[in-house]
Specification:
Length: 464
Amino acid sequence: MIDFSSIEGIYFVGIGGIGMSALASYFVRGGYDIAGYDRSSGRITDDLAAAGCIISFIDDIETLPEFYRLQENKEKVLVVYTPAIPAENKLLSYFRENGYSIYKRSEILGAISQETDTIAIAGTHGKTTISTMTAHLLKQSHVDCSAFLGGISKNYNSNLILGESRFTVMEADEYDRSFHRLNPLIAVVSALDPDHLEIYGDHETMIAAYNEFCGKIRRGGKLIYNQKLKGKIIHPEGVTCLTYGSEPGSDYRYFNVEHKKDFYSFSIETPGGIFSDFHFPFPGIINIENLTAAIAVALNCEVTEDEIRKAIIFFQGVRRRFDIRVNQPGLAYVDDYAHHPEEIRACITSVREYFGRRKITAIFQPHLFTRTRDHAEGFAAILDKLDEVILLPVYPAREKPIEGVSSGMIFEKMKLANKFMMEMNDIPGKLDIKKLDVLVTIGAGDIDRLVEPIEKRLKELRGK
């Protein structure tokens, strides 16, 4: 157990990450002195700085505030980092060599999870959307919640939500087996598609890790998982197991889905009865599946049907998750964080559902060399479903280059005639606005730096 009572300051190595920034904000509001380092600035670090955090973008001991640099203060300091930080990072090396208390982000979340009734949302895709939906349903009810989110909720303009409830919603990240630190009361598993095989080695080992996570649910707790995963999920002893989906036999089954002009209508069959004619204004049938998982959690937290019905009408989504930035006659622009073939499939399916037969152009930035190597054929197959694709170089994140692995692997496997390779800096100037109909930017790297310049240019050239 981490003792926070004697801690005065917390230093975050990688403070600009979406998960780290939520923790930093949490401790800022708890009255701690917060400082940190990241490679580059952005909206997240700007917001943290405005809240009083001291942030450096240079990996040098000289950039450490004096309080953190003085070893006589090390008993008053916690250092938090993510596995994305390279081993040669000078700041982290300094803290290690001088005996500071150092914890992974997952260990801090684990400590928080033991103090609250945690709702942990896991899955190789969908977890950010489901987490944000779940938090919204709870927050807009008499139940309330706090939440650490893997994206910026548009409803709350934050990845951190604080409340007075005993419930805390957290994303359960499978990377580096981080989710094994959590001890949730309720857990959700949305998908088990192969991912992070650089960590697990093979798909079977990854699935075993998910079952180990499920085994950490508290006795008397609940596991809610996608009906498609039946047979892969091992039911933990002393835990109530429930399923969701569109398939017959699901404990929470959505049906009668109709896409109307500005919304979807659908019904849900639950163990407590049928709830008819929900109205949901957010695009994509995949998001009705995600919402069904969130509704299952909410009902098990005693949120009422009426509270759910009202809350979903006002759900605005998550920044960079089917984020519609421009929607004018003859021109639309959507930004999405998808970075796994199945996530991209869901994104493209949702775009097709929402925009019909219109021409779709995508700019895709592959994320990680290992993921590109492991899924090049899958990426190529789903990108071939588009009308036009621009491929950017691989975003390496925490990885070093792998010989022979590049965006070219995907490019060569694609059968689509209208495919191009570009550098990211070339996009704003070379993008032919006159030929665009629906544009989608896809990826989990720094492709987000293109979003505002593209949006601005589209609005300027086509008129506001």
